[in-house]
Amino acid sequence: MKHVTEPAYVRWSLIAVAFLFLGLFLILPLIAVFTEAFKQGAGVFLAAIAEPETLSAVKLTLLVAAISVPLNVTFGIAAAWAIAKFSFRGKNVLLTLIDLPFAVSPVIAGLIFVLLFGSQGVAAPWLAALDLKIIFAVPGIVLATTFVTFPFVARELIPVMEAQGKDEEEAAVSLGASGWKTFWRVTLPNVKWGILYGVILCNARAMGEFGAVSVVSGHIRGMTNTLPLHVEILYNEYQFAAAFAVATLLAVLALVTLVLKSLIEWKTERKSKAEEDYYFDASGEKAG
Amino acid sequence: MRKSFLRRGFLPGFGMTMGYTIIYLSLLVLIPLSVLFLKATTMSWEQFVGTILDPRVIASIRVSILTSFFAACVNAVFGVLVAWVLTRYDFFGKRIIDGIVDLPFALPTAVGGIALTSIYAENGWIGQYLAEWGVKVAYTPIGIWVALTFIGLPFVVRTVQPVLQDWDLQMEEAAATLGATRFATFTRVILPHLLPAIITGFALAFARALGEYGSVVFISGNMPLKTEIVPLLIMTKLEQFDYAGATAIATVMLVASFVMLLLINYLQWRINKFDAAR
Amino acid sequence: MSIEVVNITKSYKNFTALENVNLHIPEGELVALLGPSGSGKTTLLRLIAGLEQAQQGSILFNGEDNTNRDVRERKVGFVFQHYALFRHMNIFDNIAFGLTVRSRKTRPSKEEIREKVHSLLRLVQLEGLAHRYPSQLSGGQRQRVALARALAVEPKFLLLDEPFGALDTKVRQELRRWLRHLHGKLGLTILFVTHDQEEAMELADRVVVMNEGRVEQVGSPEEIYLKPANPFVYSFLGRVNLFRGRIQNGRIKLGEAEFTAEQGVSEGPAIGYMRPHDAEVSLHPPQSAAATAVQAHIERITLLGPLVRLELRRLDTKEVFEAEMGRQRFLELLVEEGDVVYVTLNNLSIYVESELQSVPTPALTPVHVTV
Predict the structure, then answer these.
(1) Tell me, what's the pLDDT at B168?
(2) pTM of the model
(3) Selection from C276, B151, C189 nearest residue A211 by Cα
(4) Which residue of B has its CA nearest to A33?
(5) C250: left (phi over 0), alpha (psi -120 to 50) or beta
(6) Residues A12, A151 within the same domain
(7) Are residues A159 and A191 in the same domain?
(8) Domain range enclosing A256
(9) B106 closest CB neighbour out of A100, A173, A254
(10) Collapsing DSSP states into helix, strand and coil, what is residue C262?
(11) pLDDT 10s digits, B187-228
């Protein structure tokens, strides 16, 4: 259909410009991470990775993600069930409130927890009495991370569940299934890809969060240092190769995230495409 | 009870899930955020205004808004271009390109920050050529702009792409049968249709850029009055234990973000309404 | 302006949409392209408009070759099935679009455009809606806006793709009458695609019946209804009964019914087609000596307003078929379900199945029947 497309030269120059733009802003930085990491040889790279402080940062990062991701998944499923399967007043307000953490600067996300639990914070006397430490400690990092990753699963799941409608659940319940059974046997299989998608994005952000965590962590090496914070410390100490070596761990995480994300998109897209093909066959005239 | 039961249908679990949603939302988001406003009200008006009108604060707001705005502008133009190329054309590596667009969402901002700095520093891959022309990128507002463009890149692409995918090609065919050139069809038929999505993507990229911290700190150089952005200033105040100052600036910023969020939600609602009216 | 389609073949990756299609559409006629979905009728329409490119063949307007001309230069009015109105433009701007996109040199003045649009709005009876948006109009109104938009550029002819497909029955009836009227008024050549035989019969001067990428028959509505060129046309237009039988020794045998075939007819399996209203039902065997009547059992009686339809089962071949008659005739007959009646098979069309080709639709040749 030549009328609905551009001449070849326009097409190819648009593609070239897109490649140039993405190359300059996305692909080059990605390559830079790896080349900088190996600039002083594999020995320096491996040493930086094997350093005890790096390993403890890895551990802390994994721990934080292991707490905040399940919390947000539980929340996401509960919120999606309430919002997608029922109608009630103020739904839009609730949706906007769920989006709030996306609109808040990570620095402010950290700040609010400092104001709440810090040494001069609202809850400070109470925390002192109980001898609890939240700010400049692991709980603060978990809180800040959970805050910034709060909307991911819910945001992904609500439209998926809404698109599914509630016919299948109503059918299951009318056939005598309990609420839990209905959820496990009917809803969950329908939205499993949506949940996984949300989990992947949520996890990437949880492991990579920098600003919010930076405010609440206190940067205590080997104690409250996550991987991104460790990268910053090394970089500021002019240990560039080491900083980039640790950064490669996070870059690989990002690449794995992107691959998984594309796989899920590909899988769900293929599913909807199969439905579309069926539709095309049924109305043959549409072809072309 | 009976009435609400009828209205909501007979699926179970509304009370439980809704209750959990509200409690979790309140504990984690609403209460902590309200503490910020609470703290702000403990300041006197003069104190508050004095903090905000401090030349260093004003300068940082100016830097933040200008760099975020220009980054969002560039992303609006190139975002449409990338979305167009990805939905309309076939070429080698399209799937990879489509996937890599989300890199700024997946790559920790600190990593993006140090990578961009190494490229655009005066001895970096690109920085050295730009330096020959006398253009300094790293440690100048241009560097901030580069980092914010990186961070906001996926937004316009991902808001425009679905609209282009759902676009009815018959509109373009109709324009062609009426004698419109390809250019006229794009500017007068396609672009107006994409506009709400472009504005939404622009607003999202702009809002994200205003709050961005991680990728900017490395490349900006953090010189007060010149390359200091608002989130960085809040951080600095915190490190000096000036909680009141940090709170005042954060409050202004948060209110601005809320306004942006409402605007974005309104735009999304407009787009949906527009589509529903087909 | 006349349209000439010569030897057009168009195929997609895995199927052939049009195969060696030839068609002549004389100036000023209202022509229907009729066929089931997948018959290639829309593809043919799009080819004429220049929205598709054929692999082979040519398209001429008034004898002038337009095969390789760009859609923008063909000056055809095209109305899309779902109208394809520009959603962000109001009705006025939609109709004016074709004029306002012209280059400065050929563009009419603002005043002229305004006048033109308003006269078109009058023509399509939508005065006063100029500032509405497409989403604020009903389906029928949108359809008329789409027509006005196509007419604004003073096209050589109009092409309509399933123009009434998306509308409900009542609006469809109204719009058909209106289009007929418009055609009379403008005298423009109009070609429209439809899968609805009633629509084609009611509206068109000439009907082009298409199937599986081929033109099966071209003719006036009467011609194609009364003299279908082949079994496909026969069964596609209206209800039809089908009887299987054989041709032997110059006689056509359909069960106990026998007819004389023309001289020189090849022998073999034969199929007889008959419209339900050509079945003559009586309580007694017909007077004439010819054995053209069969006995049948009334399985079901359906009242359809002025018509009565009998579902019958032949006693000889057990074939099920239908007979239709006026209400008056039915009351005279005094029959009920379960009765056995005599049915005379009038106006049969017999086709011989040729042995060479039998898949998917056997090629059949009509045989003249003399009783």
Answers:
(1) 87
(2) 0.86
(3) B151
(4) B115
(5) left
(6) no
(7) yes
(8) 42-286
(9) A254
(10) coil
(11) 999 999 999 899 999 999 999 999 999 999 999 988 889 999
Our measurement of the distance from residue C90's CA atom to the centroid of its chain's CA atoms, rounded to an integer in Å, reads: 34
A27 and A165 both lie in a single domain: no
Q: A156 and A23, same structural domain?
A: no
Residue A222, class by beta-carbon neighbours within 10 Å (0-12 exposed, 13-18 middle, 19+ buried)? middle
Residues of chain C neighbouring A283 (CB-CB closer than 8 A): 37-38
ipTM of the complex: 0.90
pLDDT, tens only, A203-237: 999 999 999 999 998 777 777 899 999 999 999 99
The whole domain housing C143 covers 3-235
Alpha helix ranges (H) inside A131-226 = 138-148, 152-164, 167-174, 179-182, 188-208, 211-217
Between chains, do C101 and B178 touch, taking CB under 8 Å as contact? yes
C86–B177 C-beta distance less than 8 A: no
Q: What is the DSSP letter of C19?
A: E
Residue B193: list chain C partners with CB under 8 A: 87-88
Chains with ≥3 CB–CB distances under 8 Å to A: B, C
Asked if A287's CB is within 8 angstroms of C12's CB, the reply is: yes
Q: How far is A14 from chain B (nearest CA, A)?
A: 7
C-alpha A102/C-alpha A96 separation (Å) is 10
**A250 vs B196: which has the higher pLDDT:** A250
Q: Assess C37–A contact: CB distance below 8 Å, yes or no.
A: yes
C292 and chain A: CB distance < 8 Å anywhere? no
Rounded CA separation B241/A122 (Å): 15
Is C149 touching B (CB cutoff 8 A)?
A: yes
Contact A229, A210 (CB under 8 A): yes
Share of chain C above pLDDT 70, in %: 94
